[in-house]
Amino acid sequence: MTFRNVIVCRMVPGSEQTVADVFGYYDRTTRPQDLGVVGRTLLSFHGLYIHLIERDADPKVTGQTRGLPAFQQIAEKIGPYVTPYPRDWKNPSDSVAKEFYRWASTEGAGLPADAGEPSRTVIVARIKPGAEPTVAQIFAESDAGPLPGMMGVTGRWLYSIDDVYLHVLERVGEPFDGAVEQRHDQPVFAKIMDDLSPYISPFDPETWGSPLDAVATEFYRWRAED
User: Between the N and C ends of the chain, which has fewer C-beta atoms within 10 Å?
Assistant: First the structure.
């Protein structure tokens, strides 16, 4: 089982390549896997920096909580571009989003046998303060029905930090944009969107036109080879 932490900060727009180059150098030269880190993905969205860190074991059990041996050097190099998001930020742990829901399909229920490897999509929005339990319940009810199979969803994880809502979605089959466009008028899809509407809103209403406008852009990925 993979354990994931999600870090959320602000990022200077246009600095993605600079930040990617910093992580690329240290991921190549410091062996993060020796500390249990087996993968990372960096994404950006409307001035947000989103860092998904994957571990091969629960760090609460192993005690291996550091992301990279050169953490301080990385922090200094990306410091001009990446800054804290939370209003009450005091230390790096305050940038870690809280997971409040997770779901994974059992034995690929409802999915084609030749579906292939899952792809990942990260959806970003704003969440009403304190709404996490209600949003989790809405998804629990929906995930017990046909929608995950219809959308090719194999797993989902929901996180929040301040007013930011992150929906990490793993799925198989056609690209995410095609799945949304073809099924957005299905009653089960419309229902969950309607149920969520009092609690989840667009991160930037001025640029939002459809669920596809909430998808973060990946700009760096690393995976341990051993």
Answer: C
Quick one: which H or E segment has residue 218? strand 217-223
Q: Give the pTM.
A: 0.90
* Residues contacting residue 74 through CB under 8 Å, at least 6 positions apart: 22, 23, 26, 68
Q: Are residues 32 and 116 in the same domain?
A: no
CA distances from 196 to 70, 132, 157 (A): 41, 11, 16
In angstroms, the CA 166 to CA 158 distance is 6
- Encode pLDDT of 58-100 as tens digits: 666 666 655 566 888 999 999 999 999 998 999 988 999 999 9
Q: Residue 82 sits in a domain of what CATH number? A: 3.30.70.1090
Q: Do 90 and 104 lie in a common domain?
A: no
Residues 6+ apart with CB under 8 A from 210: 180, 184
Share of the chain above pLDDT 90, in %: 61
